[in-house]
Amino acid sequence: MRRSIALAALLIVSGFFLLSAFEMRDFGAPVCEDMDQYIIDYAQKEASANNVVTSVVFDYRGFDTLGEATVLFTAAVAVSVVFRRLIK
Amino acid sequence: MMSKIVRTITNILYSFILIFGFYIIMHGHLTPGGGFQGGAVVASGIALVLIAYGYDTVNEWIKKSRLSVLESVGALAFIGIAFLGIGTTFFYNFLANAGGLFGDPTVIGINLGNLNTSGVLPLMNWAVGLKVLAGLGSIVLLMAYGIRGGDK
Amino acid sequence: MIGNLPYAACAALIILGIYALMFKRNLIKIVIGLNLIECGVNLFLITLGYKSGSVAPIYTMAEKKEMVLPTPQALTLTSIVIGLATTALILSFAVLIYKHYNTVDASKVRRLRG
After folding, report:
1. Number of domains chain C contains
2. Taking CB atoms and an 8 Å limit, are A69 and B78 in contact across chains?
3. How far apart are CA B77 and CA C93, in angstroms?
4. Is residue B135 part of a domain?
5. Do the Cβ atoms of A52 and C89 come within 8 Å?
6. What residues make up the domain containing B18?
7. Residue C37's domain is classified under what CATH number?
8. How near does any CA of chain C get to the CA of A79, in Å?
9. Domain residue spans in chain A?
10. pLDDT at residue A6 greater than cutoff 70
11. Residue C60 falls within a domain, yes or no?
12. Which sign, positive or negative, has the C-alpha torsion A34, A37, A41, A47?
């Protein structure tokens, strides 16, 4: 009884996902691209890097990389808290 | 501790994996890659040695306290380099186009790539690469310590 | 309609992940389902930034000057690292549950009830 209700809910949710996947905008035509066009044109002049993605990660959007480094540090601390031995 | 075939292949392959990972970290501003990807490759090399030799042997080669010091050095170097450009703004690229260390200007357009360019980006790549290497290596070592019972 | 197939592939990954999360009882299979959902979301972020007839955004020995959008790729890097932190922590909890209850069946670890 519970399994059939769960299966019906999964079918409804998957119907929503597939319907929205086929009704989205065309693949290969992004809508607003002014900021990315500016970054591609001026990345070699301002950040002087050949790799545009690295210049976005570390130069134009460096603050997000600071948050991500904090998440990695928190994960290492949390795993070491789970596996410690209590000193008796 | 696995069989002799696995240990022999690990002895040969471990140095190549290490050099490949450091190559990806070093050339992050010219080719695809960077700090996070290269750190993950080196950490997978550490996981290979851990599987082939068992936890007791690896615990005498790689101590957990030294890995945590390496991770803290990487995090503090990242924040320190971000603070050094505080004259204009936080995270300012103060070494680009300046002529000193990593200061050559880039040729505009499609070019072959010069290692001496792009300012503060290679230093940040090294700091983040060390941090990811030490963090992932310490997570894998702690899980191996927790599985075998801990206090044997 | 046949051009929207990459979006349908991302939707299929997410649906398979939700199925493994709801209907399986082994703890390791539940963790695999969670990881599948996260992989589907990362793939969707990258396919949002594609332009027809463009190459990767690297200037070293590139073929032409039209490039795909670089900002979604930078955000996907952050998302992959956060997914790794979540998976590491939930696997540590699975190891702890096994050592305490001596089973990995999710319907047998209910000693708090009754």
Report:
1. 1
2. yes
3. 32
4. yes
5. no
6. 4-147
7. 1.10.287.3510
8. 6
9. 2-82
10. yes
11. no
12. positive
Task: From B145, B9, B11, B10, select the one nearest B67 (Cα to Cα).
Answer: B145
Could you please report the per-residue DSSP string of chain B? ---HHHHHHHHHHHHHHHHHHHHHHHTTTTSS--HHHHHHHHHHHHHHHHHHH-HHHHHHHS-HHHHHHHHHHHHHHHHHHHHTTTTT-TT--TTTTSSSTT-BPPPSSSB---TTBSTTHHHHHHHHHHHHHHHHHHHHHHHHHHHTTS--
pLDDT in tens, chain B (152 residues): 889 999 999 999 999 999 999 999 999 999 999 999 999 999 999 999 999 999 999 999 988 889 999 999 999 999 999 998 888 888 888 888 887 788 888 888 888 888 888 889 999 999 999 999 999 999 999 999 888 865 54
Q: Could you give the number of structural domains in chain B?
A: 1
Q: What is the pTM of this model?
A: 0.90
Question: Under an 8 A CB cutoff, do C82 and A50 touch?
Answer: no
Give the one of C58, C88, C92 whose C-beta lies nearest to B31's C-beta. C58
Write out residues 17-76 of A within 8 Å (CB-CB) of C. 17-18, 20-22, 24, 26-30, 33, 35-36, 39-40, 44, 50-53, 56-57, 61, 64-65, 67-68, 71-72, 74-75
CB within 8 Å: C59 and B112: no
Q: Does some domain include residue B152?
A: no
